[in-house]
Amino acid sequence: LRLMLGATLAVALACLRAPAPVRAQTGSSQPTSIATGSRPGWQWPTSTIAVSHGFQAPVTEYARGHRGIDFVAAGGDIVRAAHSGRVSFVGNVAGTSIVSIDHGGGWVSTYLPVISSVILHQEVTQGDEIGRVALDVSHCAGLHFGVRINDGYVSPLLVLGDIPRAVILPW
What we know:
Elements: H1 2-17, E1 22-23, E2 33-35, E3 42-43, E4 51-53, E5 69-72, E6 78-80, E7 85-93, E8 96-104, E9 107-112, E10 114-116, E11 123-124, E12 129-133, E13 142-149, E14 152-154, H2 157-160
Antiparallel strand pairs: 1-2, 2-3, 4-5, 5-13, 6-12, 7-8, 7-11, 8-9, 9-13, 10-12, 13-14
């Protein structure tokens, strides 16, 4: 029970420290762009903005959880850089093709499964095509998108928007 309460409090505090997201309205068919106080201008990595599986913080660093969000996407759909940065990983992990981008300041985004159109250390600008969704159902039937800050996973909705503020209620 103590571990559950501690993890819940840690997640709530992380959400409280995050700046309030603000949705930027656009009239184009491009993915909606989101602005936050600390990481302005992140955008959705797919043109379909439908989340099939949300973020679930693990109780401990090595515990079960879902360290990202899954988007509804079909094999061959374009995957775009959610923010500008430098490609820090392109390759396979446990048979799944992955692309990671280092955005500086400890922020890293990860996309899988992706057939990459970028190479290691390549500079990318927000919205650049970084690959296409691979046909791989080992993790999800779509695109998994993860965000880390200083090697700890956070909900991607913190930078994309649409995450409710945490409210700590009394016992």
